[in-house]
Amino acid sequence: MNPFLSKPLASKTVCQALISARLISADQARDLIKKERQLRESIVKKTSGKPMTSADKAKAIAALSFVDVIVHLNIDRQDKPGKPIDEDLIYRALAAHWGLPYKKIDPLKLELKFVTGTISKSFALKHLLLPMEMAAGKLVVATPDPFNHEAIADVERAAKLKVTPIVSSRSDIIKLIREFFGFQHSISAAEDLFSKKGVDLGNLEQFVSISAMDELPSTDQHIVNAVNHLFTYSFDQKASDIHIEPKREVCLVRMRIDGALHTVYKLPKKLHNAVVSRIKT
Prior knowledge:
single chain, alpha+beta, GMP Synthetase, Chain A, domain 3, Beta-Lactamase, 3 domains, three-stranded mixed β-sheet, three-stranded antiparallel β-sheet, 13 helices, about 15% strand, globular
């Protein structure tokens, strides 16, 4: 890792990485860098969808990364004309330029409790850090910016572990942070509601329902959110079917993907009936 690389995602660095990977030419790089400001303004104008104040426009332009600019331009690869340069290709090229491993994250290989139990959602989103696994006694964390040394040091202090950063695309990391933490929040909230005794005593119908059936109603918003996530996740993974299997201690959520059954989540067993009931409605 180059300690002198103070702006790892600056236009010049990104272009150097793409040239090295033979994805763009030196002439293309010079043209992109020369027109960077103009390109940013044009993209913000096209994507805003409504009039913006000067301050809002400046913020939007500043928030737009140079990687976003290249992806939006849909530039053809120099090595494979007709195929556009996408975000994964850019971060793969950057990882090679930085001398770090790149990983296309497979959500099926992530553990829900590990991802959500290591750092908070707010910290993860702010610094775009996604805990992946433990390897050789170190915490492996995916990030689009492995040079965010201060945030990585904070994780090391909190987890009391050394961190090994790997490079992944920004969009994938944001999507997975939101999905995993959102699903965990729904499950935890539903479990908490189930566990509380005497909750919402003013709502006698709900109280009797919970007491009599020993389950949460399938219309509980946390259950609704959790099941909605399961359907969205299965669609994203192109799963052909979903299996909700009650076991002695947990409820397994398994999905058939490419002909094979994968265990994607382990839920509290007490939520099994509510989840199944919601799916049937």
